[in-house]
Known about the structure:
The complex is a heterodimer.
Chain A: E1 7-11, H1 13-24, E2 33-37, H2 46-54, E3 59-64, H3 74-92, E4 100-104, H4 110-127, H5 132-138
Helix pairs in contact in A: 1-4
Chain B: E1 4-9, H1 21-29, E2 34-40, H2 48-52, E3 60-64, H3 67-70, E4 80-84, H4 86-90, H5 96-116, E5 131-135, H6 139-150, E6 154-158, E7 173-174, E8 179-180, H7 181-194, E9 198-201, E10 204-212, E11 215-222, H8 237-241, E12 245-247, E13 256-258, E14 260-261, E15 273-274, H9 284-288, E16 301-307, E17 309-312, E18 335-337, H10 338-345, E19 365-372, H11 388-402, E20 407-412, H12 422-432, E21 436-439, E22 444-447, E23 453-458, E24 465-470, E25 472-477, H13 483-492, E26 519-521, H14 531-550, E27 561-562, E28 582-585, E29 588-591, E30 611-612, H15 618-628
Parallel strand pairs in B: 1-2, 1-3, 3-4, 5-6, 5-17, 6-9, 17-26, 18-25, 19-20, 19-25, 20-21
Antiparallel strand pairs in B: 7-8, 10-11, 11-16, 12-13, 14-15, 22-23, 23-24, 27-30, 28-29
Helix pairs in contact in B: 1-5, 5-15, 6-7, 6-14, 10-11, 11-12
Amino acid sequence: MAWKPRVIVFTCWCSSSGVDQAGFEGFTYPPNVSTIRVPCSAIINPSLIVKAFEKGADAVLVTACRPSELRSVAPSRITEARVSLLRRLLKTIGVEEDRLRILWISSNEGGLFSREVSRILGEVERLGPLNIGGRMVEQG
Amino acid sequence: MRRVTVVLCTCCSTLLEKIDFDRLRSVFSSSPLVRRVLITDSLCEKNACENLGLKDDGRIVVAACSSRLLEAAFGKPSLVEFVNIREQCAWACGSREEATLKAIRLVKGGVQKALRVSQPPGVEGLKITREALVIGGGIAGVRCALDIADAGYRVYIVEKEPSIGGVMAQLDKTFPTLDCSICVEGPLLSEAGRNKNITIIPNAEVVEVKGRVGDFKVRVRVNPTYVDPDKCNGCGECVNVCPVYQPNKYDADLKPVKAIYCPFAQAVPLKYVINMDHCVECGLCMKACTRAAINLGDEPKNVELNVGAIVVAVGSDLFDPRLKPEYHYGEYENVITNMEFERIICASGPTGGVLLRRDGKPAKRVAFIQCVGSRESGPGIEECSYYCCAASMKEARLILEHDREARVFIFYNELRAFGKGWEDLLYRRCLEEGVVFIRSRPSEIRRIGNGSLQIVYEDTLTGRRGELEVDMVVLALGFKPSWRMVELARRLGVTVDKHGFIQEAHAKMKPLETRVRGVFVAGTCHGPRDIVESAVEGSGAAALVTSLFRRSSLRLPEAAEVSAEKCTGCGRCLSSCEYRAIVREGDKVRVLESVCNGCGACLATCPQEAITLGNWGLEQLAPQVSAMLED
């Protein structure tokens, strides 16, 4: 069987509804996407994301509320800042930064989630498997 | 060793064609981490948990539809971990094989998480003290206190003045019907005074609030009145002998009272107080008092209250017209505020209800200027102040009721007669009675001889500029909360908006609640309102308080916790909290449990990992992630 990337998606409470909506409306997306629901995107500790890569994830996605839809934009902005910092860190250790993404998904945007996830998986597939342990050895 | 029970739901057998449940059963039955695997076809059915015999199973992984739908069926929080194998798996996968593999992966993650969750502590069975505190004894506060008291609960009213009554007690008449204000409110005040369930604490202010919904500890400072309220029977002998006069705040400082005084005849409680700013301590009142109630050495007292709910009904101050120098308030004696007007036109006021100027001449030509301190970008607020159009039209009619020969002008911006009966009883009557409406925000008031005034304006309907000579100008002031409100808000932990009004939890869905659970608002403290709406809100807040008190126990959302040992007080978490639930305490931080909504935004900001939130830590989530990536 051809290699398929393994993806972990952290969904905040509200965007988890959006992911539900995708199934509800019959939008399919690749099965090797595992979702983990958390109360708020800002709860996601960067070390959790690193852990996912270390354990074999080829990509990690974070879905969060659109900042424009929040009463206060704080949590989504916190997450955005963390993710962009982490992307730079990943790059410095030789991991393609596009393996970590943040997606703004409202609770009704199932179609958008399905489209975006499929598109990102296509990109990750082209990047190939991420053997983070091996790469770190290579770099010395 | 900890083990979990795996419950798989086929969603009325609809998922059977999407997922191979037998394969799931065999995978998990052989796992050492799993106690047993149950397959059911409708977990959402009533009593499903009892029917499956899950009562003693402890840790459970439920693989079914979205937990959004299912959580309620499981009632109270227990060690249940939900895995969505319907919307996020069966319905989102192209084939049965794919969906089955994905379901196995998701459930594996769920098992790892379920092994590590712990029962959320202290979220249930919290004590409720079934007594309420109402801060402010205006119409909103009194209405609220009466409703709570009538439901059978004890209420404390903390009032900063010597008597409850608030602004409504100072008004002459109320709109639109022009009925006497104190005649309507007075009976309500004495009812509150007589009610066995109501304790009125006058001359007092809230200085400290601690605790959470259901169990607030409130410290109230009672300012000295120098008269023992338990001994004073309101006979008034002391007033007869007191040699000192002072302006009465109740009469907008227009009418003198003695230094020992009772603000108004209908005051509740009807007790005398001494204003030490004016008292000369001659001691004559002490000799006159037959009950030895007067103690000139009186000192502030602290009262500790333990209440389950707090209603903030402190009202709002009015805009300070001195901030509008073009109107020369305080400089030209015949430019007055609408509150001063109410006292002058009132039969019990300084002039016995005759509209006189300071120089004793009758005011024959009176102009009202609307929107002073509201609907502007200057020192006031941008919002409409709600009450003033109706109030000025009412006052215009009062002038004409007293003196048919008088001429009344109203300088308005937009005339807003939106309330019930306002169009007919106020606007149409004003037109019939000859009130002149001029659409303008006057640019200046000038003084011309004998105390008369000249208003310089541009009529924005015709574009013509004009000057109008009048005897008296009444400024219709907008609401503007004072700094005291900000101080009180800080003590309560509630927030204020940019104007200083208290911020509601949600303007439409939770209009009488604040961000602090158990703290409610009513009346003008959270925005401009009139009497009717303030009273309605008082009753509304009372309904919220009583429904809180009717519950047997309280449940709060999971709150973040800070480990005092690990916290270094760096403060990085403070700005991450959308609800401002984290506060500094000493050299550490503390989470206000009544404010925290359990979002967890603070967790990842902590370099010490000192903050935890229930079952959402690395400890629980990292194994879940690992398990999902195992194969």
